[in-house]
């Protein structure tokens, strides 16, 4: 089995070394590089194409959210797990819009980091428990309003709902096409319509939406 290749980006040397020690508990994982600023994170991800990049949200020269946005464009096979001190919705939303697949709080990194990396490496979202509660509270608030998340979901056709779930479960367009006996191009057309109807922008947001809806866990 190939080793899981990781990039670690945090501007605090002691924090970075502590996180690396946690990661090295897994003999099948390899930290291919560790860096201390956002520009170096983009450079390393572009050159090395790691499987997972663990990115601190607050870094010099280029913050982690903007670095994530560049990483997912330049190294599309690299999945980003965001580390942050902030548990408010604004930071979470910005991170997901930038393309992060997971979001964990630094004060729980010791418990959540390994599980988070495993999840995002498999194409699944991962959030610290505090963030999950925040997401659920936000969903309840929206559901109590006049324009709800559920309203937009109801605009999806049966086929779009089927493909929505398959995407949220981390299936590729080719895998979905094979399962449904349609072409990958047709899957991509449905994907684009789903994103437009739900007013979301990328797969990470789609997965978060699916978790909020209870379509996937």
Put the structure in a nutshell.
With 217 residues, the protein is α/β, with parallel strands linked by helices. It is 56% helix and 14% strand.
How is this structure best described in words?
With 217 residues, the protein is α/β, with parallel strands linked by helices. It folds into two domains: 4-136, Rossmann fold, CATH 3.40.50.2300; 145-213, Arc Repressor Mutant, subunit A. It has helices spanning 13-23, 38-48, 64-74, 89-98, 109-121, 129-143, 149-153, 158-168, 173-180, 184-198, 203-213, and strands spanning 4-9, 29-35, 52-56, 79-84, 102-105, 126-127. Strands 2-1-3-4-5-6 form a six-stranded parallel sheet, sandwiched between helices. The model is unreliable at 146-150 (pLDDT under 50).
